[in-house]
């Protein structure tokens, strides 16, 4: 190809060529980073919790009149039994915090009773022994809870709290006991707690603390009174979830004294997940929209300038055709020209993209832009450039050679 | 002269309809996008209590034990334990001060047929209303004496008053909360500081629907209301919030002069020293944050919004570059016309002015269309699942700013083409014809 000739011709349109190069560079930089932010958001939105979310519904009940702790706990047991009798429900529990819920409870966990020992803040699920089965967690080492593991919530405030076992997530097990089996070992949270089991995955109800700590979680077998928790029901068939919510509400309303039972405080865990990640979803869509607009604007710019160039060079094109250039040659000329400009813009854009990414890393704790975003961004802009130039270039091929004979 | 330029510009713009439409459209899209995000930024970074600008401060002390303490790096936590909040309230000489926490109170209205419901509640001291300059529709706040005698009084928000009493004067009536009747002493006029600065470290909800009930802290604690947050730094009895080694209150003071700020800072540090001597506290750090520092520190403007604003401004830049390119193409295509005008005696300045007028027209049209797009964009933001959605409205200042930005963007874009146009040499152009 006559790259040298093309460059020589471009020298006469320095400003216009520079403008297109800049436009492509900015678009390339913004699009690379926007695509990257979108992909981090998507990845975040699809993180599993370890629970079988499609089979879960949750119902929270508030109490209005204050009653004795014993009466409240007895009421909780009555509720649990009644909820378990609903058809289509396989497991029921009452848990202090739900996945994607607004409340989150932590304890600092260390490997020694010394209060100065290094510790990690770990979220704690407190529920009766059915939690593991209700959530559908996979026990990968040790065992689940047994009925005799359970302690009451009130006894945790005693002078000598009962020693209760704990089940932890695999990520926490790896963090506390790297390269060893955690089962049978002891951690210090509520006094010494013996680890009886490890579940494959369980996460914080909502993001809190360092990103790596999202997968640290522990479960205690605590018989909790209903005002401090949420009823969690596992249904056999996901299609029955709304039906089960309706029945659970009517069961809870029928039962017991004046309480706050409302559809407002009942939802499926799937709905909870959608709500929790709604801001991420909105941001991803917004960025995607901006990318499309940006590509559109850049394409418009290229179309505008190249069509102007074609008009301006009608005479030259005519001369080239007259001295033997084929239509194909003319087409390749404009395409190569665009390819050269786009390439310059892409090189500049990569540097800019990298700079923007550094800035984002510093200020918003975004990870480093993976290498493969650069060729993807480049490819997108090369294709865009070729498509935008096509119309004007095809028009140029229809310039008849006779133009050469007319006055310049 | 200007009239003639206007005529020429309109004529030329009409001649190249597609190109003109493209320029106006790109400029409008860039301006619409950046105005949308800038409006959101502006709404989110405003001063939540303008009448107390520069006067509200947030003291912090650090009750954690010494382990994992790094001098100069460890920041004090934002909330205070009951002991520290009360200790600082007693020790201080602030003009006005208030300590508060948030809760969800189960409310049982006395009216027949009303079901009990949860209401977002602030548990606070009598200083709340004065410190934050809250407007009252009916009645007023409660007094220090009522705080001390743990009288069951409350102030309710305008929204709750409308819901329960149809907006009539409800002072003197009572509501049942936590099994006790609380007498209403005041009804706030609509008041909803944005961001809700006092809530950022309690429930962490800075925007959106506001609080409904304002209850005296001590009386509400006696009746068993819980704080919505409880961060414990030591083991102990967590069931009694007044003695629990847990942080769940925030403190705000109003300091009107720099001398007062200095005094308060000195008091804060001597308080910490004294508590360390008593063995209650261990870490020597304490700080007094201004409202501005506090909002920055708590990231009251979400990162997403900052990223969006950066993207939109980058987008506007691309649109301007694009407009320059298109204007340039259009102007170079008219070399003949320029040559003719120059040959007939038009000065370079006249050609320059003509082209700038044309750019200004493009800018103004881009601005008008951009405004429409910004309104559409803000409508989109209002329908987003974000807590600040309802606040996204264009105000007159942003409205005016949009036009200034649009016209200056277009003039900036027009500079280069206009300069190129006025240096066109007349003779070759005429010959070429």
Determine the N-to-C terminus distance of chain B: 28 Å
Instruction: Supply the helix-strand structural class of chain A.
Output: alpha+beta
How confident is the prediction overall: mean pLDDT of chain B? 84
Alpha carbon gyration radius of chain A: 33 Å
Give the low-confidence spans of chain A.
none
| Number of spatially distinct domains of chain A | 2
In total, the number of strands of chain B is 12
What's the rounded overall pLDDT mean of chain A? 87
Biggest β-sheet strands, sense, barrel of chain A: 8 strands, mixed
Q: Which shape of chain B, going by the Cα principal axes?
A: elongated
Question: What fraction of residues of chain A sit in β-strands?
Answer: 15-25%
Helix content of chain B: 40-55%
Structure keywords:
heterodimer; A: about 400 residues; 2 domains; eight-stranded mixed sheet; four-stranded antiparallel sheet; 14 strands; B: 2 domains; 14 helices; 12 strands; elongated
Structure description:
The complex is a heterodimer of chains A (408) and B (433). By secondary structure, chain A is of the alpha+beta class. Chain A has 2 domains: 3-46 and 279-405, no CATH class; 53-275, no CATH class. Helices cover 48% and strands 16% of the residues of chain A. Chain A is built from 11 helices and 14 strands. Chain A has helices at 3-10, 14-45, 69-84, 131-135, 170-176, 241-254, 269-276, 278-312, 314-322, 327-364, 373-397; strands spanning 56-59, 62-63, 89-95, 106-109, 120-127, 139-142, 151-152, 166-169, 186-189, 191-199, 217-223, 230-235, 259-260, 266-268. Chain A is elongated and about 105 Å long. The two termini of chain A are 26 Å apart. The model of chain A has no long low-confidence stretch (mean pLDDT 87). Chain B has 433 residues and is of the alpha+beta class. Chain B folds into 2 domains: 2-45 and 302-432, no CATH class; 53-297, no CATH class. Chain B is built from 14 helices and 12 strands. Chain B has helices at 2-15, 17-44, 82-91, 128-131, 144-148, 158-165, 217-222, 258-278, 291-297, 303-333, 335-343, 348-382, 396-422, 426-432; strands at residues 56-61, 80-81, 96-108, 117-124, 136-139, 153-156, 174-177, 180-188, 213-216, 231-232, 246-254, 286-290. Chain B has a 6-stranded mixed beta barrel with strand order 3-4-9-6-8-7. In chain B, strand 7 (174-177) and strand 8 (180-188) form a beta hairpin. The model of chain B has no long low-confidence stretch (mean pLDDT 84). Chains A and B meet through helix 2, strand 2, helix 8 and helix 10 of A and helix 2 and helix 10 of B.
């Amino acid at each position: 190809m006559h790259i040298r000739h093309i460059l020589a011709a471009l020298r006469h349109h320095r400003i216009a060529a520079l403008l297109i190069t800049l436009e492509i560079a900015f678009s390339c930089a913004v699009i690379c980073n926007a695509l990257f932010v979108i992909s981090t958001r998507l990845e975040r939105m699809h993180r599993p919790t370890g629970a079988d979310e499609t089979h879960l519904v949750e119902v929270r009940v508030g109490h209005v009149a204050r009653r004795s702790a014993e009466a409240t706990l007895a009421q909780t047991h009555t509720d649990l039994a009644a909820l378990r009798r609903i058809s289509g429900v396989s497991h029921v529990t009452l848990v202090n915090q739900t996945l994607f819920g607004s409340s989150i409870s932590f304890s600092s966990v260390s490997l020694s009773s010394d209060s100065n020992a290094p510790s990690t803040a770990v979220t704690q699920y407190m529920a009766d022994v059915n939690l593991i089965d209700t959530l559908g967690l996979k026990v990968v080492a040790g065992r689940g809870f047994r009925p005799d593991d359970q302690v009451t919530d009130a006894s945790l405030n005693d002078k000598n709290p009962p020693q209760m076992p704990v089940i932890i997530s695999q990520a926490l097990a790896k963090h506390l006991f790297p390269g060893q089996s955690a089962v049978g070992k002891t951690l210090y949270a509520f006094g010494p707690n013996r680890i009886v089991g490890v579940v494959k995955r369980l996460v914080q109800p909502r993001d809190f603390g360092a990103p790596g700590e999202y997968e640290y979680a522990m479960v205690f077998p605590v018989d909790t009174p209903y005002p401090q928790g949420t009823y969690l029901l596992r249904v056999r068939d996901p299609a029955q979830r709304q039906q089960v919510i309706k029945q659970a509400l009517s069961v809870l309303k029928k039962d017991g004294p004046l309480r706050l039972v409302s559809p407002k405080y009942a939802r499926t865990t799937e709905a909870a997940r959608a709500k929790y990640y709604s801001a991420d979803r909105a941001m991803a869509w917004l960025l995607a929209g901006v990318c499309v607009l940006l590509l559109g604007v850049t394409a418009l710019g290229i179309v505008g300038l190249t069509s102007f160039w074609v008009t301006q060079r009608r005479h030259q094109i005519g001369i080239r055709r007259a001295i033997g250039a084929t239509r194909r040659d003319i087409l390749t000329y404009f395409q190569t020209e665009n390819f050269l400009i786009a390439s310059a813009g892409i090189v500049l854009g990569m540097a800019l993209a990298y700079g923007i990414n550094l800035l984002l890393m510093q200020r918003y704790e975004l990870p480093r832009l993976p290498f493969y975003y650069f060729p993807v961004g480049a490819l997108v802009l090369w294709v865009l450039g070729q498509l935008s130039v096509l119309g004007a270039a095809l028009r140029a091929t229809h310039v008849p050679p006779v133009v050469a004979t007319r006055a310049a | 002269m200007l009239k003639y330029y206007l005529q020429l510009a309109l004529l030329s713009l009409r001649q190249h309809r597609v190109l003109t439409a493209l320029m106006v459209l790109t400029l409008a899209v860039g301006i619409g996008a950046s105005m949308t995000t800038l409006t959101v930024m502006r709404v989110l970074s405003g001063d939540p209590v303008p009448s107390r600008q520069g006067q509200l401060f947030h003291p912090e002390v650090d009750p954690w034990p010494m382990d994992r303490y790094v001098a100069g790096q460890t920041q004090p936590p934002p909330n205070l334990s009951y002991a520290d909040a009360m200790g600082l309230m007693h020790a201080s000489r602030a003009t006005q001060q208030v300590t508060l926490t948030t809760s969800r109170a189960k409310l049982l209205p006395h009216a027949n047929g009303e079901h009990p419901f949860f209401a977002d509640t602030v548990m606070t001291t009598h200083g709340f209303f004065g410190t934050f300059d809250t407007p009252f529709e009916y009645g007023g706040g409660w007094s220090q004496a009522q705080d001390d005698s743990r009288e069951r009084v409350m102030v309710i928000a305008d929204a709750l008053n409308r819901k329960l009493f149809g907006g009539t004067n409800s002072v003197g009536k009572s509501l049942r909360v936590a099994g006790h009747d609380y007498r209403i002493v005041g009804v706030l006029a609509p008041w909803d500081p944005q961001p809700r600065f006092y809530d950022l470290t309690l429930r962490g909800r800075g925007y959106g629907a506001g609080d409904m009930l304002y209850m005296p802290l001590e009386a509400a604690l006696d009746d068993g209301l819980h704080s919505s947050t409880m961060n414990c730094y030591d083991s102990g009895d967590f069931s009694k919030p007044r003695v629990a080694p847990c942080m769940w209150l925030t403190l705000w003071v109003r300091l009107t002069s720099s001398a007062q700020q200095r005094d308060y800072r000195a008091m804060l540090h001597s308080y910490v020293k004294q508590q360390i001597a008593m063995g209650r506290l261990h870490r020597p750090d304490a700080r007094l944050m201004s409202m501005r520092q506090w909002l920055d520190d708590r990231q009251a403007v979400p990162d997403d919004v900052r990223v969006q604003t950066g993207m939109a401004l980058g987008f506007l830049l691309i649109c301007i570059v694009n407009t320059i390119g298109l204007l340039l193409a259009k102007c170079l295509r008219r070399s003949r016309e320029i040559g003719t005008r120059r040959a007939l005696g038009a000065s370079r300045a006249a050609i320059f002015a003509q082209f700038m007028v044309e750019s200004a027209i493009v800018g103004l049209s881009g601005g008008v269309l951009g405004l429409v797009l910004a309104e559409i964009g803000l409508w989109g933001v209002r329908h987003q699942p974000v807590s600040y959605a309802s606040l996204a409205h264009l105000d007159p200042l942003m409205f005016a700013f949009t036009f200034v930005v649009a016209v200056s963007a277009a003039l900036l874009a027009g500079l280069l083409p206009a300069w190129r146009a006025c240096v066109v040499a007349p003779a070759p152009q005429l010959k070429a014809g």
